[in-house]
Amino acid sequence: MKVTEKGQVTVPIDIRRKLGILPHMEVEFVISGKNAVLRKISGQRERGRKIVSALTGRATLGMTTDEIMALTRGE
Questions:
Q1: What is the pLDDT of residues 8-46, one digit of tens each?
Q2: Cα torsion at 47, 52, 57, 62 (round to 10°)?
């Protein structure tokens, strides 16, 4: 594996599968002596939960669920 001029490397698919690394997932290098260890940044699922939590309960129309459903269905 070679490092590009931009300092990039491609993590082989078999390693990504074993580590469970998916596209757009964040990873980090941890330095241990003269070696670097690649690992997933924990808490990836927490980010999604925080986003959903921030959006929960934001409707301020003062309408009931049935009224909103009737409106979206064109009733």
A1: 999 999 999 998 888 888 889 999 999 999 888 876 666
A2: 140
